[in-house]
Amino acid sequence: MKIQCVPNFCAMYYLILCTASALAHTGALLWAIVAAFEGRLRRRPFRRSDRIAVSTTSVLSQIQLILGFCLYLWSPVAQGFWADRSLRWNDSLFFALVHFGLMAISIVLITIGSALAHREKG
Fold this sequence. Notes:
Structural class: mainly alpha
Radius of gyration: 19 Å
Order of helices and strands: HHHH
Number of strands: 0
Shape: elongated
Number of domains: 1
């Protein structure tokens, strides 16, 4: 028996999954940024809640990266760009190279920041 996916259901599930992932990642990132500024301005030590904020942001960023790579591989925009390989500035160039590169760099920086925060003492 072959399971078929109803197009409207798949599109709805995709939209819900992407939205939930983006909201969770953005919320955790804002939580970590606010905790960092609060700690820096008030000169307070790195607390357990700060460590949780950093860990949550790092984990959700890694999940977002994996989800983004999967979507990138199946994206018709990226596939069209690599088939055409036109470097004219348009949507396919933005999503295939610029957005992909900047998001990968941002996840790397978040991961490095998380590792440095976990090594920080006191």
